[in-house]
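Query structure, 44 tokens:
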């Protein structure tokens, strides 16, 4: 998916939220699972 500059949401990836790469893939997946509903609610 390409990033569009004039959009109403911000595209965040692991590298944006964990710039020092301290989280394992499993920890990252758990973070997404815990917070995805909150991000969706804020974006709508």
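Result returned for the query:
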């Amino acid at each position: 998916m390409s990033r569009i500059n004039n959009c109403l949401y911000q595209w965040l990836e692991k590298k944006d939220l964990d710039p020092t790469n301290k989280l394992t893939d499993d920890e990252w997946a758990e973070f997404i699972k815990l917070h995805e509903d909150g991000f969706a609610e804020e974006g709508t």
